[in-house]
Amino acid sequence: ASVASGAYYNAGQGCCAIERVYVHRDVYESFVEALVSEAAKLRAGDPADETTTLGPLVSREALRRVEAHVNDAVRSGASVLFRGKAPAEGYFHPAMVVGGDALRGSQRARLMTRAESFAPVAAVIPVHDDEEAIEAMNDTSYGLTASVYTSDGAAAESILGRLDVGTGYWNACNVPSANLPWTGRRGSGGGSGGCTLGE
C-alpha cells in the first residue's frame, strides 16, 4: 500500500512521487499483483466528488507527455499490466502499472525509465539482485528521493548509502522529517530546505 500511495497520490504529480519500482525477480509477480490490486481501487474524476481518489493532471501537455512515455515503453516491448479508467473530458489519466524486462537497461524505454512522467503511472522493473537495482536507480539525471523496502535493516542502509539521492527512505516514501533537511542531488533541487532542529 505504501508504494501505491507513493506512486498515485496527487495523481503522481509530486516531486518525490514513486515512478520506477525495481523488484527482485523472485517476488516480482506477487508484487505486481498487489500493486495492481491497489491501483484498481482508484477512481479518476472530479476532485469535488467525494468518491474520486485520482484527480486530473495539470495540463493537456502533461497528459501528452505521460502518454508519450507509455507509448515509448510499449514500443520498446514493455507491457501495460494494468490501466484503470478515466473520464474522456479533461486532463485525466488513469492509474497504470507498466512492466517487463523491456524496461531493464538504460538504452530501452528511456522516457519511462529516465525521465519524469509526473503522472499516476508506476513502472515495475524486474532485477536479478541488489547490484542491478542500485545501478538502475542511479542511472538517471534526477536524485531527489529513493525508497528501499526490505525486512533487512542492514541491507537497506547499505543500499541507501550507495544511491545518489538527497533523501533515502526505508520501508516508507514521501514522509519528510522535520528533523532532517530536504535536499536533492544532480538535476533535483538546488539546495536544501528545512532547518536545524530547535531553530
TrEMBL record:
Signal peptide: none annotated. GO terms for molecular function: oxidoreductase activity, acting on the aldehyde or oxo group of donors, NAD or NADP as acceptor. It comes from the Eukaryota. Residues 3-192 form the Aldehyde dehydrogenase domain. InterPro entries: Ald_DH/histidinol_DH, Ald_DH_C, Ald_DH_N, Aldehyde_DH_dom. SUPFAM superfamilies: ALDH-like (SSF53720). This is Aldehyde dehydrogenase domain-containing protein. It comes from Micromonas pusilla (Picoplanktonic green alga). The lineage of its organism: Eukaryota, Viridiplantae, Chlorophyta, Mamiellophyceae, Mamiellales.
